Amino acid sequence: MSKHVPIRTCIGCGEKKPKRELLRIVRDEDNNISFDPTGKASGRGAYLCPKIECLDLAFKKRAFSHALRCEVSFGTLQKIKEELQNEISRRGEIK
């Protein structure tokens, strides 16, 4: 019998994928927004494919504010964008 695999939707492209293949951004109870490399931090999460195109699309659509159900400041978005770009580079994804 196969184990259940949680599926999540990318906020950039809208593709459904196994949770472990996606990057997670989390808003904690104090409304701090950060990249969650473990995928286990408590709080409201949003998922993104590890691709630059999905990251850019999510920014263009203002998907972070929508998915995290709070207004995300420009400074916070820039910080998250840098962290996600570093993680995408680390994973070896190609633009």
Automatic annotation (TrEMBL):
Q: Which residues form the YlxR domain?
A: 8-84
For this protein, the record's CDD domains field holds: YlxR
Against Pfam families, the record matches this protein to: YlxR
Q: Which Gene3D superfamilies would you find in this protein's record?
A: YlxR-like
Output the InterPro entries linked to this UniProt entry: YlxR, YlxR-like_sf, YlxR_dom
By its UniProt entry, which NCBIfam families does this protein fall under? RNA_bind_RnpM (NF047356)
Full protein name: YlxR family protein
Name the source organism: Dictyoglomus thermophilum
Taxonomy of origin reads: Bacteria, Pseudomonadati, Dictyoglomota, Dictyoglomia, Dictyoglomales
